[in-house]
Amino acid sequence: MSEHTPGPWTSYTGTHSIWAEGKRAICIMTGARKTADMERDANARLIAAAPDLLESLRELAELAVMQFGAPP
User: Fold this and answer.
1) Contact in structure between 46 and 36 (CB atoms under 8 Å)
2) Closest by Cα among 56, 19, 28, 45 to 5
3) Which backbone phi and psi does 17 adopt, to 5 degrees?
4) Is 22 helix (H, G, I), strand (E, B) or coil?
5) Cβ atoms of residues 51 and 7 within 8 Å
6) Residue 56 contacts by C-beta under 8 Å, 6 or more apart in sequence?
7) Average pLDDT in the 41-51 region?
């Protein structure tokens, strides 16, 4: 598995950017269409949630192994 920047990650509405703890920029989303601002903000929030989503997925996989005895 590849290494990633540890969470928590934070997105800031209006800047379309994702920052790691300690003010380290992870991603800055750009685009020319002004009407896409809401979409970029939503995508930034989704990307910022990635570390939490990964942890939840790992916990779910662990529960599945305990419940069914084998990886899904």
Assistant:
1) no
2) 19
3) -130, 155
4) coil
5) yes
6) none
7) 86
Helical segments of the chain, H only = 37-48, 50-68
Report yes or no on whether pTM surpasses 0.70.
Answer: no
How many other C-beta atoms lie within 10 A of the C-beta of residue 17? Answer: 19
Tell me the two tokens of residue 23: 């003010």
Q: Which residue's structure tokens are 């540890």?
A: 6
Tokens of 63: 């529960």
pLDDT in tens, 14-35: 777 888 887 778 888 776 666 5
Write down how long the chain is.
72
- The terminus-to-terminus CA distance of the chain in angstroms comes to 18
